[in-house]
Amino acid sequence: MNSLHSLESGTVSVTNTQKHASWVPVAVLFRFDAPVTGTVTITRTTGETVFQLATVELADNQSAAWIPETDYRFHINDVFTVTSTATNGTVEIIRKAAQ
Q: Could you tell me the superkingdom of the organism this chain comes from (predicted)?
């Protein structure tokens, strides 16, 4: 599964709405219209708790990627959020079903 989102608002969220299935992020790809400097934060929200999964520092980058080193499982109602200080681009979130 993959989905492409605009970073115009600075925040992109994907919620697992599948009652009997979970998924894991495989990669998060960032593309910007021009080189940017800033910070991207990736989090998982479970219930009321927010877990920071990664921070990606951008220094004059036009593209970047985050590939998790472990499986972060997203169950029903868990929210995957990308927050970026650079807003002139897109983020592609690639996921797969959890085993």
A: Bacteria
